[in-house]
Amino acid sequence: MNIEYLKYFAELAKLQHYGKAAKALNISQPGLSHAIKTLEDEYGVPLFQKEGRNVSLSRYGKELMQDVEEILDAYLRMEERAAGLRTEEKTVRIGTVYPLAAGTIPHMLREFGATFPFIIYNRLTPEIEEGLLDGKYDIGFCSELLKSEELEYYPLRESYIAAAVPEGHPLEGKENITLKEAAKYPQVMFSRTSGFRSLQEQIFAEQGIQVKSVCEAEEIEVITGLVENGFGISILPYMDIVRLHHITAIPVQTSSWKSKFYIARRKYGIRTAQEEAFFQHWRK
């Protein structure tokens, strides 16, 4: 089946004149006649009948016309979808854990000089792994090693435990502090519905320190807002969002907790040159 010949068939059926149809299709009249003759030979039936200087569909042509229209409609939808995929393919989809989303990823894109369009999605590491595997994301930034052998990943940077304090706080000028020093001040903690709450409790428990929160919140944006407005300080893994507020992050020297962030992607896949260059730029 030649899709172009089916287009010719449909146009001739509509205009009912070889000369007019050939002009509309921007082909020669002999070329159109050859295409119709080829279809008739292929199907074994006459598709048109002469009516003076014009032509009309034969009874066989009328029966085939509905199928031809459906085929051409489906072909048009396929072309439109393919065009959409080509446009989408130029957009790099980035899945990232929240600690890197606000500052690190935009900074990396700017430092690289990215000119490609991109979309950033905030997700948890398991969701990023799943998204990389099923093609939702092109590049992932995660907080732990991924298990799938279909993915490649490289360490990007380490995180550490810090005390987030508001401007003007007595601890603000210190280069680092101990957990005991931090425990003397009211604590803003994550709520028990947050995955970070257990980490906060673990950090204090390792030092045999008991603290009671003065207020709690589930999201880091609210935690930083409470700290910024003087409700207390917060012990948490360093996150770039701290830099977006009037808050100082002081490393806690007595905490041994460390976490690595990784850049990851599928081992095999179709990539644009810019996407490949960006990944390789940050691969360690």
Could you explain the architecture of this structure?
With 284 residues, the protein is an alpha/beta fold. The protein has 3 domains: 3-89, Winged helix-like DNA-binding domain superfamily/Winged helix DNA-binding domain (Arc Repressor Mutant, subunit A), CATH 1.10.10.10; 92-156 and 260-282, D-Maltodextrin-Binding Protein, domain 2, CATH 3.40.190; 159-258, Periplasmic binding protein-like II (D-Maltodextrin-Binding Protein, domain 2, 3-Layer(aba) Sandwich), CATH 3.40.190. Helices cover 44% and strands 23% of the residues. The chain is built from 11 helices and 11 strands. The strands form 3 sheets. Strands 3, 4, 5, 6, 9, 10 and 11 form a 7-stranded mixed β-sheet that branches. A two-stranded antiparallel ribbon has the order 1-2. α1 crosses α3 (29-43) and α1 (3-15) packs across α4 (59-89). The mean pLDDT is 87. InterPro entries: HTH-type_LysR_regulators, LysR_HTH_N, LysR_subst-bd, WH-like_DNA-bd_sf, WH_DNA-bd_sf. Pfam families: HTH_1, LysR_substrate. This is LysR family transcriptional regulator. Belongs to the LysR transcriptional regulatory family.
